[in-house]
Amino acid sequence: MDIVKWVLIGAGVILGIFGAFLLYFTAVDYNPPQVVNLKVEGTAADRIPKVLTLMSWNIGYAGLGKGMDFFMDGGERVRASEEETKRYLMGILKFVKTAKGKVDVFFFQEVDVDSDRSYHINEYAALKKVLTGYASTFAFNYHVDFVPVPIESPMGKVRSGIAVFSRMMFRDPKRIALPGEYPWPTKIFHLDRCMIVVRIPAPKGKEWVLINTHNSAYDTGDLRKVQLAFIKKFILREYEKGNYVVIGGDWNAILSRELSFRSKEKPQEFYIPLPKDWTPRGWHWAIDPSVPTNRSLSKPYVPGENFVTIIDGFLLSPNVRLVRVKGINLGFRFSDHNPVIVTVEALH
Q: What is the per-residue pLDDT for 16?
């Protein structure tokens, strides 16, 4: 009886500690309002552009370069070493520096500012140092004090988000929350997905509405459907106002059903195509079908072995002409994503 009693007491203590853990993280869960006004940092030129060049790049918090696999993708590792992280970040910054001046607006995703997984390096500050002469803004989409998985080596604290840099001064930057979430308690340790919306003056008194998005991953598609429905409604409303709308980023959906890159690995179940009927009539995609933008993290990158596809790109409203689009094949050396650069022109 004494053994049973102590087992029950021990189980009660463990359950109590676990319950207190969940209650604490529920209480401190990052839960911003639907719309958050963001700060504009830095200065840029006041200009009314007819043509814009934009780049989108998920930099993978400088922790998912060529030598990395990741446990959420079926790999084994949780984080890169500090040496690897610094090397990946230097490569990211070097490439961004070469694009500076050629690119008017940068969209970045997975930018850490104070995370255990990236050794508390402020990557947003590092980008600002490189992109002098650009105004910028930042929004959190991952703000958790302690991510408890995997149990044997938890990810720990994460402070990460998305950022926009522009060499034309923009106004009214906003964080717009994307709908949908995982059930409790999973949701308190997951990302809070969002878009950043900025506005730049356009010809004839109109506006460029530029949107940086990072949609959900790993779910079976239900979250992504809810988010895509919200995005569609949002962009159509902006277009109906006469604005020039460009939305880009990491869609976490395969953007073309015609894509077929050769690889030994089959796609995992969380790689799902964009729904056939989602793209609004008259809107057009800017993707480069010759260059994959994302690779599987089930193992370190080996060309021809890891599954690769295109989940990053831009969607343009009917009054925006695609001048050119180019995927930049960096061989996934510094991130599990390759950047995409697009040049667009306002019509009418």
A: 52
DSSP state of 119: T
8 Å CB contact between 320 and 37 = no
Identify whether the C-beta of residue 249 lies closer than 8 Å to the C-beta of residue 214: yes
DSSP 100-114: BTTBSEEEEEEEESS
Q: At 250, which helix (H) or strand (E)?
A: strand 244-250
Dist. CA 209–CA 51, nearest whole Å = 13
Give residue-wise pLDDT tens across range 338-347.
Answer: 999 999 999 9
Task: For residue 331, give both structure tokens.
Answer: 């061989």
> Cβ(325)–Cβ(340) under 8 Å?
yes
Q: Check: CB of residue 149 under 8 Å from CB of residue 186.
A: no
Q: Is residue 55 a contact partner of residue 101, using CB atoms and an 8 Å limit?
A: no
Phi/psi region, residue 303 (left: phi>0; alpha: psi -120 to 50; beta: rest), is beta
- The pLDDT tens digits of the residues spanning 197-229 come to 999 999 999 999 999 999 999 877 689 999 999
- Looking at CATH, the fold of the domain delimited by 34-346 is given as Deoxyribonuclease I; Chain A (3.60.10)
- Distance, in Å, from the CA atom of 188 to the CA atom of 113, rounded to the nearest integer, reads 19
Q: Say if residues 69 and 298 touch (Cβ distance below 8 Å).
A: yes
Residue 272's nearest CA partner among 228, 232, 220, 308 is: 220
Q: Are 194 and 176 in contact (CB under 8 A)?
A: yes
DSSP calls for 120-167: T--HHHHHHHHSTT-EEEEEEEEEEEEE--STTS--EEEEEEEEEEES
Which residue numbers in the chain have pLDDT < 70? 1-2, 4-30, 182-187, 189, 221
Query: Looking at this protein, which amino acid is placed at residue 248?
Result: G
Take residue 64 and report the two structure tokens written for it.
């998912």
Beta-sheet strands, E only, within the chain: 35-37, 51-58, 105-112, 135-147, 156-166, 171-177, 194-201, 207-214, 244-250, 284-286, 294-295, 308-309, 312-316, 320-327, 340-346
Instruction: Name beta bridge partners: 274.
Output: none
